[in-house]
Amino acid sequence: MCFTSMQSSAFDHYATSPGYAAPTLTSPLSLISDPTLVTPEIEPLVKTAYVARTPEELPVLNRFVPAKSVPNVQKAKYLDLILYSREQIIEENKAMGKEATDTAPWGIVSVKAQDHPYETPMQPITMMRNALGKDQGGSGVPLEADKYRQSVEFWSKHVSLV
């Protein structure tokens, strides 16, 4: 899915800010369901699965709660779109042995539901995947220990609803 030239017109009124690394932007928009707090009622619902987003990536362990198992899921106030620059997408595709054919200046790589207008910490496993390198499905951004610890602090108390 690509963020085409409409970004410069239709989405100009939405705030964008730099993401976790130079080739990314984050742009919170309204909607959907938020990472939920892990409570005694939610904890037994937590599941794990090894997931690869593409056939070329190494699968990594993910932690989540199926949204259908949570009664009265509240809608989140924002969707945080994580956008990669065309240059980053080209580099990652090349490292994975694929050709990037889209010409859009930005590509949507993630959509995160949340209740605040700023970027939720990236999940620790995503930070690790990114540090693996572009040839393994990551962005090639080195792991920063302090940001990793902040992520662990947040995601130890929260879980994604999927």
Q: What share of residues are in beta strands?
A: 25-35%
Low-confidence stretches: 1-15, 27-32
Please give the number of β-strands.
9
State the share of residues found in helices, binned by percent.
Answer: 10-25%
**Number of helical segments with 4 or more residues:** 3
The radius of gyration computed from the alpha-carbon positions, rounded to a whole number of angstroms, is 16 Å
Reading side by side through the largest sheet, how are the strands ordered?
Answer: 1-8-7-3-2
User: Quaternary arrangement of the chains shown?
Assistant: single chain
What's the SSE pattern? EEEEEEEHEHHE
Commentary on this structure:
The protein has helices spanning 86-95, 124-132, 145-155, and strands at 2-3, 17-18, 24-29, 36-37, 47-51, 60-65, 78-85, 106-114, 158-161. It is α+β, with helices and mostly antiparallel strands and 162 residues long. It has one domain (2-161). The strands form two sheets. Strands 1-8-7-3-2 form a five-stranded antiparallel sheet. Strands 4-9-6-5 form a four-stranded mixed sheet. The relative contact order is 0.24.
